[in-house]
Design goal:
This protein has about 625 residues and is α/β, with parallel strands linked by helices. The protein contains 24 helices and 22 strands. β11 (about 255-260), α9 and β12 form a beta-alpha-beta unit.
Length: about 625
């Protein structure tokens, strides 16, 4: 019996790992596993091509992992397959089965769905189909022929009995690639807008020995980064300590993405995190306790602020999540939460509209809370009693402006300095930026909301022009050169951090052949103009720009910025040499480049640029 397990990812990336499919496959008996293939799909693939690919495997059973981001396309694919081969057995599982399973079955013309943890249920289902037995009565499985539309979610009672998709070889590892790593299931908390607890509140950790062996395998394979799948790894704190120590002892060179509850980050956790290359994501959601308490989530802003301050002091990269549209909140309350979040200087603030997910407490209480949300994925909030649709629209634009300026515009290093200089709260400054984009930036709301299309390179001139306008309004003309330097410096530092080293060149191109060779500047060598010494940009600290600017000496001119062995190199250039290197942005003949320099120093400078790898030959 041939089986396919299909996963459609959001996009190709290091996170596009079919972990759920691999867990199902790894749990199958050897004979069934040998007849099972995992198929990865992406949104840009043509439906006809996908059908041909799947049917060419001559499957008997196809299982689909259905999430809110792929529900429509996966169910459309299932219907198309049903029309082409009616005898196929089509089954779905995944987060979307937490809602109306009958609707899911009908919409996809499925033979049934598996609710909850699927390893045992899927194995039992395939075994029954292979042996020609009835599928009724399988825990966690709802058949299209069943009279009920709900069943208790299936649970694997002993996680230690489940084989590892990594150790079993079901999931291949790639040097420099990424891993989704499951370390536990469940959640200690039961927030009304989330179904991480999956009806079984509490955490069930996977065996430590299995985790150790998986980590050793990841390190041996040269994995670059790991996303730890545990919504609150540090609850309780002792479990978090044990996990972090395991990472340090076993695979400290890998970069880890970790989710945590900030209030539970004690001093020991922070000490351990500081020994790792990691980023910590913290679900703040709102900074208003009175909004979160009815949603079964408790925060203490003062305690939270202290924990985040300790993360900053320890140099640990962290991000914060916010949700707008929560019942009991409003646009002004969202602005309060945004102020709180940005004042903590997170490396990133991810802002989402409330999704009223089927299967959650919030979904069941929609009428009680006067909560209006889209009935189809991604189930986004449209309004609530105190948060009308016009305020939702305001919050959406504010979130987009913040994402553009702060996140994609790499503003963490200077944002609070700007707020202080312009005497504005963070949310107010971002509101003004959004309004400026619409008026002086001449962008439509659709263009502003399409944040995915905005690159740092496109955002930089918008940041610069907006800040100039803010300086003029506040009669802070003397700050314009310093702010422009700050923006450019942080942008270029990020480009260099993410880019390649500029390695020394060779003497394979002697002076005699320089003039007849075509040359181009190394793509990660920058020649920007600065008004001040860029070395001062990292020393400003939290001092107000209005206070520090008179103390800085203006040193206008072009600088050379590049990275070598991970170290940032900044050098001031004389103008003829700078002009020559700027000309070499595009391929130029050596003769053209030499003609722009003083004849007495031209050859020496040219050879220096070649030997330092600043100029590279164009082949």
């Amino acid at each position: 019996m041939r089986t396919l397990i299909v996963t459609q990812h959001v996009r190709p990336s290091a996170q596009a790992v079919p972990l759920a499919a691999a867990c199902l496959c790894a749990a199958l008996p050897a004979e069934l596993r040998q007849q099972t293939d995992i198929i990865n799909l992406y949104p840009d693939m043509e439906p006809e091509q996908v059908c041909r690919q799947l049917l060419s495997c001559q499957p008997d059973v196809i299982g689909f992992s259905v999430s809110l981001w792929n529900r429509a396309s996966i169910l459309a694919l299932a219907r198309r397959l049903r029309s082409l081969q009616p005898q196929l057995f089509l089954v779905a599982g995944g987060p979307e089965t937490a809602g109306n399973c009958r609707q899911l079955i009908d919409e996809g013309q499925l033979d049934g769905v598996i609710c909850g943890e699927g390893e045992i249920a899927f194995t039992t289902l395939l075994t029954s189909l292979r042996q020609g037995r009835l599928t009724a009565g399988i825990d966690g499985f709802i058949s299209a022929a069943a009279s009920t539309s709900w069943t208790p979610p299936a649970t694997c009672p002993n996680l230690a009995d489940l084989p590892s998709p990594w150790l079993s070889g079901v999931l291949p590892l790639e040097a420099g690639g990424g891993v989704l790593w499951e370390v536990a299931r469940g959640c200690h908390f039961n927030c009304s807008f989330c179904y991480d607890a999956k009806g079984h509140q509490g955490v069930r950790p996977l065996p430590v020995e299995r985790l150790r062996r998986e980590l050793e395998l990841f390190a041996q394979a040269g994995v670059a980064q790991i996303w730890i799948l545990d919504s609150t790894f540090n609850a309780p704190a002792k479990r978090g300590h044990q996990l972090l120590q395991l990472l340090i002892d076993t695979a400290a060179n890998i970069h880890y993405h970790i989710e945590a509850k900030a209030e539970l980050l004690d001093d020991r956790s922070i000490e351990l995190l500081s020994q790792l290359s990691c980023s910590v994501q913290i679900g703040l959601q709102s900074a208003r306790p009175e909004v979160l308490k009815p949603l079964q989530r408790i925060i203490t802003p003062h305690q939270l602020r202290q924990a985040l301050n300790k993360l900053n002091q320890a140099g640990i990269v962290f991000g914060l999540d916010l949700i707008y549209g929560l019942p009991g909140d409003n646009h002004q309350g969202f602005r309060h939460s945004l102020n709180f979040a940005l004042e903590q200087q997170p490396n990133q603030v991810d802002i989402f509209p409330l999704a009223v997910l089927p299967g959650t407490d919030l979904h069941r209480r929609q009428a009680e809370l006067s909560l209006c949300a889209a009935p189809v994925p991604p189930y986004l909030v449209e309004s609530s009693a105190g948060y009308p649709d016009d305020q939702i629209a305001q919050s959406r634009l504010l979130a987009a402006a913040t994402d553009m300026f702060y996140n994609r515009g790499r503003a963490v290093g200077f944002f609070l300095l700007l707020c202080d200089a312009f005497n504005k709260k963070p949310a107010t400054l971002m509101h003004h930026f959004g309004a400026w984009l619409s008026t002086k930036g001449r962008l439509t709301p659709a263009e502003i909301l399409d944040t995915e299309s905005w690159t740092p390179e496109k955002i930089l001139p918008l940041q610069r022009d907006f800040c100039r306008d803010q300086c003029r309004q506040g009669k802070l003309y003397r700050l314009i050169p310093l702010i422009e330097d700050l923006l450019q410096y942080h942008y270029l530092c990020a480009e260099l951090l993410l880019g390649e080293d500029c390695l020394p060149g060779t003497r394979e191109n002697p002076l005699a052949t320089f003039a007849t060779t075509r040359w181009q500047r190394h793509p990660f060598v920058f020649i920007p103009f600065f008004h001040y010494d860029p070395n001062d940009m990292d020393t400003l600290g939290a001092q107000p720009l209005t206070a520090v600017q008179p103390q800085l000496e203006q040193l206008p001119g072009h600088r050379l910025l590049m990275k070598r062995e991970g170290e940032l190199i900044i050098e001031m250039l004389d103008e003829p040499f700078a002009r020559m290197l700027l000309t070499a942005t595009r391929a130029q003949s050596g003769e053209t480049l030499l003609s722009q320099l003083d004849p007495e120093s031209a050859e020496e400078l040219a050879m220096m640029a070649v030997e330092q790898g600043i100029l590279v030959p164009v082949t």
